[in-house]
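User: Could you check the structure of this?
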Amino acid sequence: MRLKLHSLGLHHLPIAFFNSATDEPESLRAFIAARTEAIRESHRSALREIIAGAKDLLANYEKEQAQAILRYAGRRLDDLAEGQRGHAAVGVPAGTR
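Assistant: Sure, the predicted structure tokens are below.
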């Protein structure tokens, strides 16, 4: 049991021993209910962390896409401005091609 709990990252959870001949069933039920809730909370917490990480990753990806588009637009504007300067240098009026 300890090995299975350890593999799930739940090695800190207690283990109880139950003797069906002498122990009250309610104590076992309460123990199992508490452990089940603790495991569920542990999994919920891990999932929250995964979801938060995925949201951050997606937000960073979207920002990088926007920055790439802005860089591309900037290069295109630089190319356009360079072309306009080239026309002005040889006496071609700006805006005519």
